[in-house]
Specification:
Layout lengths: L4 H17 L2 E2 H8 L3 H13 L3 E3 L4 E4 L1 H23 L4 H11 L5 H16 L1
Antiparallel strand pairs: 1-3, 2-3
Helix pairs in contact: 1-2, 1-4, 2-3, 4-5
């Protein structure tokens, strides 16, 4: 199943929340993303059906191996793109918003080239 941008955003949010809190429920995702309970519930069911996460009997969300891999990939892109844009002189808030848009569309090849370039810049 190929994820839409919104699915990637949910996985990234669940990863961030789990790093902050340890455990995550749908209501936490609602609060974090600012979405309604029905919208989050629908997305969670789709991600669960797609094999990206599991929901236990108490409603706690756990990313599966593929869900965690996908979330980490998106979050790495977000962090690197944000830092790169800030380094270029872009305001932090704008850099964060722009990185969020870019992280879903950039190709793996372009991201790896950008990542290598940033590594070169930081080693100088």
């Amino acid at each position: 199943m190929h994820l839409q941008e919104s699915g990637e955003m949910y996985l990234e949010s669940i990863l961030v929340l789990s790093e902050q809190r340890g455990s995550v429920r749908s209501i936490d995702v609602c609060d974090h993303m600012g979405f309604s309970k029905p919208s989050v519930s629908r997305a969670i069911h789709l991600l669960e059906d797609g094999g990206y996460l599991t929901v236990d009997g108490k409603g706690y969300l756990t990313l599966t191996e593929v869900g965690l891999e996908t979330a980490k990939k998106i979050y790495e892109r977000h962090k690197l793109l944000t830092a790169f844009l800030i380094r270029l002189g872009v305001n932090e808030e704008i850099a964060t918003d722009d990185a969020c848009k870019m992280e879903h569309d950039i190709s793996d090849e372009t991201f790896e080239a950008l990542k290598a370039h940033v590594a070169e810049l930081t080693s100088e």
